[in-house]
Amino acid sequence: VRTLHRQGADLIKIMPSGGVMSIGDDPNHQLMADDEIKAVIDTAHALGMKVAAHAHGKLAIDKAAALGVDSIEHGSFADAESYRIMKAHGTWFVPTMLVGAKVYERARSHPEQLNPSTAEKALMVVPVMVRNLHDAYAAGVKIAFGTDTFGMSAHGENAQEFALMVKAGMSPADAITAATAGAAELIGDARNIGSIQAGRYADIIAVAGDPLADVTTLEKVGFVMKGGTVYKADGKAVAP
User: Fold this and answer.
1) Same structural domain for residues 190 and 206?
2) Helix (H), strand (E) at residue 147
3) Do 99 and 146 sit in the same domain of this protein?
4) What's CA 88's distance to the chain center, in Å?
5) Which of 133, 142, 210, 223 is the most exposed place for a label (fewest CB within 10 A)?
6) What whole-number distance in Å separates Cα of residue 15 and Cα of residue 97?
7) What's the maximum distance between 2 C-alpha atoms anywhere in the chain?
8) Domain that holds residue 59
9) Active site residue ranges
10) pLDDT digits (tens, 9 = 90+) for 140-156
11) Cβ pair 227, 193 in contact under 8 A
């Protein structure tokens, strides 16, 4: 952790549970000892860094949250007790619905393109993700937008996450807040990003439509401003 901090990292991601894409582990198993999880969190926080936990299994979710991790990524097998622990410790939940949907789709349509264990785990894990986001949202857990984008979901498709969050029960307004003010608060940069206010970075997008009525309009961005400079207008690139 200290080495990564010296190299410029501002966030540490730990893997306290098995994964879906990884080979040879079980998403339900806790793969880090409690002392290891605590050592990472305490060291990172002392250096002003955030800690995210890739956690599918309930045990890893509960332990990481209780030990002070900043966010749980995936959270597939969380339950009501998990949500109580997360609320008590102010833990954020990043549901990563898009990558789950993409892996599940691949496991069903082209299982030969995945490692057999990955396909099997995807079919087991992903169906519970929608229910879990619904339950976490209903329980009042803080939710931040995140896609876990990699080869299954390409950069540029990120906004498809919004529709999946709304399908799971979030209001469009809350899904948008999760991607703006919520995500900014989670990473500790709300003083600069996440809202349109005097003194914040002028990072703004606009769409032709009302995303509160149809959240999929956010998948068709027509205007992009970054740091006060317009890079896209009327759906076309603009030379800065």
Assistant:
1) no
2) none
3) yes
4) 20
5) 210
6) 18
7) 53
8) 2-196
9) 13, 148
10) 999 999 988 776 777 78
11) no
